[in-house]
Specification:
By secondary structure, this protein is an alpha/beta fold. 41% of the residues lie in helices and 14% in strands. Among the domains are: 26 residues, no CATH class; 75 residues, no CATH class. The chain contains 10 helices and 7 strands. The protein starts with 5 loop residues before the first strand and ends in an 11-residue tail after the last helix.
Length: 234
Amino acid sequence: MSLNCATQLDEDDGEECYALTDASRLLVKDNPLSVTPFLLALLDPTLSQPWLHLSTWFQNDDRTPFETANGMALWEYAGHNPRFNNLFNDAMTSDARLVTSAVMEKCKGVFERLESLVDVGECTVFDLPHVVGDLEGSENVKYVGGDMFEAVPSADAVLLKCILHDWNDEECVKILGRCKEAITSKGSKKGKVIIIDMMVENHKGDEESTATQLCFDMLMMTLVTGREEVKRLG
């Protein structure tokens, strides 16, 4: 019927009743894979207002509609606005839980035999200082503040989850260059860069999936300088 509900037969008495759909279950707060924070961020005026500035953006020299609406780039804005920074980080955390569960179910072998992993954006979580500044690590996880355009910590593998789609092609090449340095800094030739991102493709003829892909492609154009890739790397 919709994103929120569907009809089904009650298991006890067989009568027709309303029930949550698979999609709406992801909005239930006590669901471990809840993406409610992600939805709340998308609906926040900070991220929704840029869509209303597209026509103005076409007529100026700003890099993104987000910059037109908020006076600065998204990453700079997050560094100056604690409320939005927390909102955005919570959104990315909820998205990461959902994506990671799918990746570990379908692609677990990619992570086997790795002794160290740097997650950009022992296991090292590498992100901007204002993102990881208040976080505490553990025996197997540590948080490192820095800039992926300058250097990425050395590791057996570097994970880029929903990172490259935030940046233009030239910036992506620079990020990948830093990743190459990170996985070869100890002389190893067996390192790997693991990229998790959306592809704009329609091999299965699924119109809803294609619409979602194109929506995120537009979202990247509106909020940052990136896009969803239309062809596979390599």
